[in-house]
Amino acid sequence: MKIPYEQCVTCKGTKRACGLASCPILDKLNNQLPRQLNAKEVVFGPTPPNAFVGSYGYPNVYYGPMVSISEDKKANDSPVEWYGKASYNDIINFTSSMLRSKKVSGIFAPRDKSSDPLLEKTQETVLSTKNIDVEVEFKNKPKFQLKFSPVTAPLGPDGMLKNFKVCDNPVIPKRVDEILEENLLATQAIDELYSHGHDVYYLTKIMSTGILGKQKNKKLVPTRWSITATDDIVSKQLLPKIRESPEISDFEVYTAEFLHNHFEILLMPGKWEFEQFEAWAPGTLWAFGAPNFQVTEDHEPFTGKKDYSNQAGGYYASRLAVSEHLNRRGKQARALVFREIYEGYIVPVGVWEVRENARHALASTPKKFSTLPAVLEYLQTRLRVPLSKYTKKSEILRQSRLSDF
Question: What is the CATH number of the domain that holds 42?
């Protein structure tokens, strides 16, 4: 069965668009990995802190805390710390050393705290802002595997959870405790916690493990869903203020590149709009046999996006970065993100790479231009795909305004 390249670059293994039970590209990648693990049934070590909630079998899913078996006590699961420092090998070595415990639970278990003591302990650990020691007992010796996803960071070895002990006192900020006691809606709690300085990585963990929301509405949320949902919620909470802010006056270009992902972000004078291009080079994971760059586009107008993006989590991750940037400046703009994925990107590491590339680009000093033709001429020198290919697909660049010239 030959699957069209165009289908792979929009599906990325998340939608089963080919009709197969699992993604053959990810299956092949997973099966090529070495199988070795030195771990026993009882493991004592630090949790970053983190937990993982799967989507298989939904609404009955696997969840469980994660514990490190690395000898590197400074190992950190924060993509903020990985950016610009970690290589592919570093990321794979780190995720290979994170044991993922698994226990089956219905998604509504968080509504009754007494129904699952292990879930309550898991929630206690992910609320901590510091590493804490835990003891995890598995039913059998954990088995090695390394699974890749276009949304989450790679997942390491796993085993079925038998028991779980928290050996340290979790460090939970006072304001977090207060907000959780207020019994807010999940979206309200995310807004409050984000405004108090908690990044989306922390919010994703506590959303996924069923901590947020009114008691009667709480539920476990698969990790890959909660990542995109958190990016989407935070962006939507920032956008009302952005839409009422003054427009930028120049054409601004911001640049970043990490892990063979090249970003050019163009901010243009005008009312809020957002558009992202993804261009996958031949030989990359989702365009492995393609003869040329495979380009996808998605866009939202001033009023916002009504449907789910064909670019999946990457769209929401970069839109979050742009929203954060404009919100800090008290400005609005038409935003175009050009993401070119080059030949070295052969293993997916998750949408954190998109988010952090966009954040770092927007933290840099921009190149400024006074007209659209001038900025497009510059962009053509920065991109490998001919600009005409982007323009043909673009909703924003095909708009004609006298003020752009």
Answer: 2.40.50
Q: Which region among 73-87, 261-275, 327-341, 362-376 has the lowest average model confidence (pLDDT)?
A: 73-87
Phi, psi of 162 (to 5 degrees): -105, -45
Say if residue 1's pLDDT is above 50: no
Residue 388 has pLDDT above 50, yes or no: yes
Residues 280 and 383 in one domain: yes
Phi first, then psi: give them for residue 55, nearest 5 degrees: -110, -15
Structural domain includes residue 29 = no
Q: Are residues 79 and 159 in the same domain?
A: yes
pTM: 0.89
Nearest CA among 208, 211, 206 for reference residue 225: 208
What pLDDT is stored for residue 87 in this prediction? 86
- 């243009």: which residue's tokens? 268
Going by C-beta distance under 8 Å and a sequence separation of 6 or more, which residues neighbour residue 148? 26, 29, 30, 154, 155, 347, 348
- 362 and 282 in a common domain: yes
What is residue 188's DSSP assignment?
H
Mean pLDDT of 48-62: 94
Domain limit, last residue, from 146, 166, 186 = 166
